[in-house]
């Protein structure tokens, strides 16, 4: 690790512009999943540190909200440039703590920069309305204002870009933030503190805390000074946080779990579908909430798809994310490995056929073989539950109507994908699928320009697109009377 990388590894909380330890001095070890070795430690903070970070954010909000959109936009452009100038260092930290390949990590850091630039641009386009008045002597204005202090809780699978999606709109609108990055991958989160300082973002505008999820999350959700909570993570924790915020009626944005179907119709371009399937399943070792959970392949093309897909899966290079050519790194930890093994055991017991993979990788630790399971059946656990690992179950289907029903038969509604060359079918299926993101003949669709967000129990609100800024704004109706007109 060179000096430029190590200067981003902060082993302290950032509260009101000060890098500080936990009050108790307690720390948590952070491990590299590729080597099983410790990278460093982070503070084990709790309620008291969180309350101070919220207070710092509330104080900073008083002046930050008064800056012009142009001033904030300029600082955000500087932040964008700094992220790109340090892309390799930030990607190295990301790979070290998360495990994904250096190529994917660099892509994620570039995506973080793109979100910051997008919101730097959007900052200057937060328009209100002047509404035709029903009264001759009154005028009606609708204004948009920053909500205030935003609490952001982010996951380990995209430890850099998930923060960009939250810090970006907060800074753009004039909000301040208190961030809790995931304990497994805190350094990419803490690096945002260094970047914001260097970009000249004032002390207290961005505060970052590590430690006890229940204590920090408890304070963030209950403290009345927090106006909004934005969370990316599991549906289970999202529901709990929503309950906790109910007491103070906070705004909430939730990016939660998924159970993405990937449908291949008989008329699909098979090679394109296989390439899309690899991207939609094995990115980040299957650990994204938009990763395919269920492949549905129409009967006539089923065997050929399984064969070609398996050939492609067998080409994936598993290894330490820092080694050149690695496409799939280790899973985040041994719990993830055990969960994947449970899904495979359940499927084989119920008639699933392992076509490739199916067990821990010879590299040891939390490495797992990319796996394809043919003859998947509705009664198997992954029909309903999110796998979050490199296992691809392939179901066979007969008709369009039938597959739409099966694809929608889940409480989730985040991403879905389908492959067809029939234009009419493309529209019928797109309109029939109850999902927030739809890839038609594409397996990788996230981009800053489009609104990312799920339906049903996959979440509330959007990140990215022109829609992504709305959740950080209050809409105010102003009636100006007594004008004597
Ligand atoms: C995720 O939230 O897990 C996926 C993010 C993305 O595709 O950008």
From TrEMBL:
It is an enzyme of class 1 (oxidoreductase). GO terms for cellular component: cytosol. Pfam families: Aldedh (PF00171). Its EC number is 1.2.1.16, 1.2.1.20, 1.2.1.79. CDD domains: ALDH_F5_SSADH_GabD. GO terms for biological process: gamma-aminobutyric acid catabolic process. GO terms for molecular function: glutarate-semialdehyde dehydrogenase (NADP+) activity; succinate-semialdehyde dehydrogenase (NAD+) activity; succinate-semialdehyde dehydrogenase (NADP+) activity. Residues 19-478 form the Aldehyde dehydrogenase domain. Keywords: Oxidoreductase. Gene3D superfamilies: Aldehyde Dehydrogenase, Chain A, domain 1, Aldehyde Dehydrogenase, Chain A, domain 2. Belongs to the aldehyde dehydrogenase family. This is Succinate-semialdehyde dehydrogenase/glutarate-semialdehyde dehydrogenase. It comes from Pseudochrobactrum saccharolyticum. The lineage of its organism: Bacteria, Pseudomonadati, Pseudomonadota, Alphaproteobacteria, Hyphomicrobiales.
């Amino acid at each position: 690790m060179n000096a430029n990388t190590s200067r981003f590894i902060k082993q302290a909380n950032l509260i009101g512009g000060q890098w500080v330890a936990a009050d108790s001095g307690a720390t948590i070890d952070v491990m590299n999943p590729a080597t099983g070795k410790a990278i460093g430690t982070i503070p084990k903070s709790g309620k008291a540190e969180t309350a101070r970070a919220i207070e710092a954010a509330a104080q900073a909000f008083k002046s930050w909200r008064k800056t012009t959109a142009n001033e904030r936009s300029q600082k955000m452009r500087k932040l964008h440039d700094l992220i790109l100038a340090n892309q390799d260092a930030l990607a190295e930290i990301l790979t070290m703590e998360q495990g994904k390949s250096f190529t994917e990590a660099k892509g994620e850091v570039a995506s973080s920069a793109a979100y910051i630039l997008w919101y730097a641009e959007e900052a200057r386009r937060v328009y209100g309305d002047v509404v035709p008045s029903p009264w001759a002597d009154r005028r009606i204005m609708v204004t948009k204002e920053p909500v205030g202090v935003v609490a952001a809780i982010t996951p380990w699978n995209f430890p850099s870009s998930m923060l960009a999606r939250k810090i970006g709109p907060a800074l753009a609108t004039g909000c301040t933030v208190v961030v809790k990055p995931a304990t497994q991958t805190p350094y990419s989160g803490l690096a945002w503190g260094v970047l914001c300082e260097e970009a000249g973002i004032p002390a207290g505008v961005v505060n970052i805390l590590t430690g006890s999820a229940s204590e920090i999350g408890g304070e963030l959700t209950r403290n009345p000074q927090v106006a909004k909570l934005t969370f990316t993570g599991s549906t289970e924790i999202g529901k709990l946080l929503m309950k906790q915020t109910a007491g103070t009626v906070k705004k909430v944005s939730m990016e939660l779990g998924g159970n993405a179907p990937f449908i291949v119709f008989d008329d699909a371009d098979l090679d394109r579908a296989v390439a899309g399937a690899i991207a939609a399943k094995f990115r980040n070792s299957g650990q994204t909430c938009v990763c395919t959970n269920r492949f549905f392949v129409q009967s006539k093309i089923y065997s050929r798809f399984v064969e070609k897909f398996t050939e492609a899966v067998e080409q994936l290079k598993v290894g330490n994310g820092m080694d050149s050519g690695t496409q799939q790194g280790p899973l985040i930890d041994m719990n993830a490995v055990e969960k994947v093994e449970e899904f495979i055991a359940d499927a084989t017991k119920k008639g699933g056929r392992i076509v490739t993979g199916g067990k821990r990788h010879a590299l040891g630790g939390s490495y797992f073989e990319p796996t394809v399971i043919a003859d998947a059946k509705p009664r198997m656990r992954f029909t309903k539950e999110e796998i979050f690992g490199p296992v691809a179950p392939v179901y066979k289907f007969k008709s369009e109507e039938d597959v739409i029903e099966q694809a929608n038969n889940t409480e989730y509604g985040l991403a879905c994908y389908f492959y067809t060359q029939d234009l009419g079918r493309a529209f019928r299926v797109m309109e029939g699928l109850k999902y927030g993101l739809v890839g038609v003949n594409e397996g990788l669709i996230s981009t800053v320009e489009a609104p990312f967000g799920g339906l049903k129990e996959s979440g509330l609100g959007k990140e990215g697109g022109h829609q992504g800024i709305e959740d950080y704004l209050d809409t105010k109706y102003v009636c100006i009377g007594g004008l004597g007109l």
